[in-house]
Amino acid sequence: MPDTEELITDAVAAARGTDVRLAERQLDRLVVGTGAPDADAVLLRRLVRRFGLLAARGWQPVDLARIAARRLGARPARLAVDVLAAHRRDQTGPVPGWWDAQLAELGARVWWPEDGRYLPDWAGREGLDRITALREAVDVLAMAEGLPPIAVLRPPPGVATAPAPARGRGDAASRMLERVRALLAKAESTTFPAEAEALTGKAQELIARHSVDQALLAADGNRDDLPGGVRLSTDPPYAGAKALLVQEVAAANRCEAVWSDDLGFTTVLGWPADLEAVELLYTSLLVQATAAMLRGRGERRTHTAGRRTRGYDESFLNAFALRIGERLRAATEDSDRRAAETAGPDRLLPVLAARSEAVRERLDTLFPGVTRHRLTVRDAEGWNSGTSAADRASLDPGRPAGPTRQVRGRRR
């Protein structure tokens, strides 16, 4: 009679395959062939071990929760969060503060009294029978065993490191970020595109000024900070347009972006203050772009009822991303020019150039096989509407359907 580990291995292998009947048979063998507490504890241990291996291979808590929700659904994602809590409980080495912060954001905690009771207790919380609970646990383990290594952006638990530089250091930085958040919140809530653009532009000016201040402080203090990275969700629908928006926002803030389409995220590399700016701007601009797209779609339907909207929506979002990118880069260049007049170009420009070069070196180290994905605009009306939504003040109704655009992506 196979032991519990072997039965779990067989069930996971079948779940990763394409034979649905075999997967059900192996799951039945797991249910019938083992005692429940033994199987539950062993399965949880297998999950914790696998999540620990993924942590060493670049996967952060938010990444694992996001990929579980993307591939399996909300309920298995909640199980994955519980596994992350168990993994944290079992850590004996150093655990970085950012790891615990992500777990807190996910609400990860060990709520069950003993590991042998975890799965039946989880099934009770979710209103599931035992075999369904086992199936979902096996599916999470099968998913985890199929995940590839990704870029290690920050040292995982168990690795002793110096404290990472805090984002947005100091009271002045905190006040600046609060002003940026307030401006972006107003931009999201207004129904006037020109006002939203002006507010977003002002936010970018503040961000660019703060970035220059941080660069000069780092240069004066001879700090040995290194560029870091964050991952931003670029899930369907319109994943390519979202990746393009991340790339445009990143470029305007001296960052580099790489889209992992198959995994549903874009990795942004840069300095801490710039990364925080990209996160804030991307989140806000995605809200603004979606709202503008829906308004444009509604107006379009009154004139062209029955036409398909996917090509329109995608072209709209691509045009929005490109035009917003132009405006953000213009705001950054203007801020840099004024900062150079104050600090002196001989002092500022070499610092900015050195920081940009460090980010590019980080990109080459983490993503040596990067390629480019071509995004083609297929709907002229959507392109023109998206451009107009991003820049009402310079509406050009005769603008053509736009060139193809490339987004840096990862080849597998």
Automatic annotation (TrEMBL):
Q: Which InterPro entries does the UniProt entry name for this protein?
A: DUF2786, DUF7168
Domain named DUF2786 is located at 175-214
All copies of the DUF7168 domain together span 242-354
Renumbered residue ranges of the record's region Disordered? 381-412
Q: Which Pfam families match?
A: DUF2786, DUF7168
Q: Which organism is it from?
A: Micromonospora echinaurantiaca
Could you tell me what this protein is called?
Answer: Uncharacterized protein
